[in-house]
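Quick log. Single chain, no ligands specified.
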Amino acid sequence: MKKRTLFLTAGVALVLAGCFVPSVNPLYTEKDLVYDPALVGTWGEPKDDERYTFSRAGEKAYTWTVTEKDGSSEFDARLLQLGEHRFLDALLVRMKGEWKGAGFGRVAMVARPAHIFFKVELTNATLRLGGLHPEWLGKLLKEQPALIAHEWVKEPDGGDEPRVLLTASTAELQKFMLKYVGNTNVFAKGEPLPRLEGAAVKP
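-> predicted structure:
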């Protein structure tokens, strides 16, 4: 795939383990969406500043608000089921405050609204979100550039090394995810976050 220098203009936050891969297209169609009330609530480590709050925003939709000491990001989020696996598709809709370039606050910019994907492990007590790992995907696509449609883009503060922007269709994205979801290197393994607020759902 031809490399393209793309100066980034709309924010997408780095999540949990600091890893994400932006995508032009969503990971879901309407038939793939599920709603799990157990996701609603606030998650995070009590000793840390970051909080991850999910609220219901429709029949099968969530508003995901990420807050930290210096600001917040709000995402339009969808939970979806592909085979035996659940994923979260998040699209940034607004940002507030100032970020200092560290942790959750380090913000990458893309030229149009971009979807970011996470593998979801959810119980009443804990939430684990694993972002698609950019280093693993970048290495794979350098070796097999025809594997899935993508472009190489540069961040303004990202140095000389470009990163992957997925341009594949939703169907192609789903096929790719299901092919590689069992590979332990594909998704960053964040720590499970305890529930801080919100009623747990009865079994």
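Residues 10-195 form one domain.
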